[in-house]
Amino acid sequence: MIDKPSAFFSPARIAQDREELTARLERLAPEEGVHATAWPSLSLFRADSTGVPTCAMYGPGLGLALQGAKQILLGQQTFLHEPASYLVTAVDVPVSSQVVRASAEEPCLCLTFRLDAQRIRELLPEVPPQRATMTSASGLSVSPLDGGLLDPLLRLARLLEAPRDLAVLGPLIERELLYRLLTGEQGSRLAQIATSGSQSHQISRAIDWLREHYDEPLRIDELAMRVNMSASSLHHHFRAITAMSPLQYQKQLRLQEARRLLLADQCDVATAAHRVGYESPSQFSREYSRNFGAPPLRDVARLRMVDAESVA
């Protein structure tokens, strides 16, 4: 791994690299939607027009917008994901995402690099000590893009068209990319999440448990005990990172899973409600409507119509 400080990359060089990466993404993602790539951690997104807010679960990852823009809502926090910035999600967070700038001539183009906490932990001992630069404990944040981060992403994108080279060089570039993240503006945030014993890591463990047991009754005292925190501390730090309480987080998990089941046509509304942990179908329908803006069947019909129109 060659050490190139961010200052090495002039504004002209950064603009040139962004232009090349944008062109490669447009070629690799010729149609709208999410596209997997030959490197499992890397996926691409394209939208040719603006859209409506869509609820989604953002996992730990690095997001880079090359063209167009998305607006992302986490709790009461609003983030604009646009070129010249990068987004880092440190833990699983339920968000509302909307493409707010896109056209057929200039589609919204983004890439996402999935982050592996274990690989981050393995790299931490080799990262130079740095002063904490976090402005908040939020699980999602946006920072200005620098050349040190853009460079390995561009080189990885180039290797997507050279499979034999990708197998050998991909792991080295991924390691460099993680190093750049850890030594950048959001490095302290990622280090805290990955460090065993830290409050951020304890909240990450609580999130993992909720994702695995979202359909079970939630007892805050028991969850706090599982992650070795007091109930009040769990509430405070959980809200700081996810912008919601553990109960609100569980509700988001339940509603999004129910929506997935209904879209897949795997069951009716009452069965979906029961599968995700609701005892009352009427309560489920009320909360579904508040969250997604329409009752379950009407919402699913609208989503299917949007999908059909995008395919057409």
Concise overview:
With 312 residues, the chain is of the alpha+beta class.
List keywords for this structure.
single chain; 312 residues; alpha+beta; Jelly Rolls; Arc Repressor Mutant, subunit A; 6-stranded antiparallel beta sheet; 4-stranded antiparallel beta sheet; globular; AraC family transcriptional regulator; DNA-binding; HTH_AraC-typ_CS; transcription regulation
Please describe what this structure looks like.
- Keywords: DNA-binding, Transcription, Transcription regulation.
- Residues 204-302 form the HTH araC/xylS-type domain.
- The structure is a single chain.
- The termini are far apart.
- A hairpin with a 2-residue loop joins strand 5 (69-74) and strand 6.
- The chain contains 12 helices and 10 strands.
- It has helices spanning 11-28, 117-123, 147-159, 163-182, 187-194, 199-212, 220-226, 231-242, 246-263, 269-275, 281-292, 296-311; strands at 33-36, 42-47, 54-58, 61-67, 69-74, 77-81, 85-89, 93-101, 108-114, 140-144.
- The relative contact order is 0.12.
- It is α+β, with helices and mostly antiparallel strands.
- Helix content is 49%, strand content 19%.
Structural class determined from secondary elements: alpha+beta
What pattern of helices and strands is seen along the backbone?
HEEEEEEEEEHEHHHHHHHHHH
Reported by name, the CATH topology of the largest domain is Jelly Rolls
Strand content: 15-25%
Form type = globular
Summed up, the domain count is 2
CATH class of the largest domain: Mainly Beta
The helix content, as a percent range, equals 40-55%
- The gyration radius over C-alpha positions equals 20 Å
Main beta sheet:
6 strands, antiparallel
Alpha-carbon distance between the termini?
Answer: 45 Å
Count of helical stretches: 12
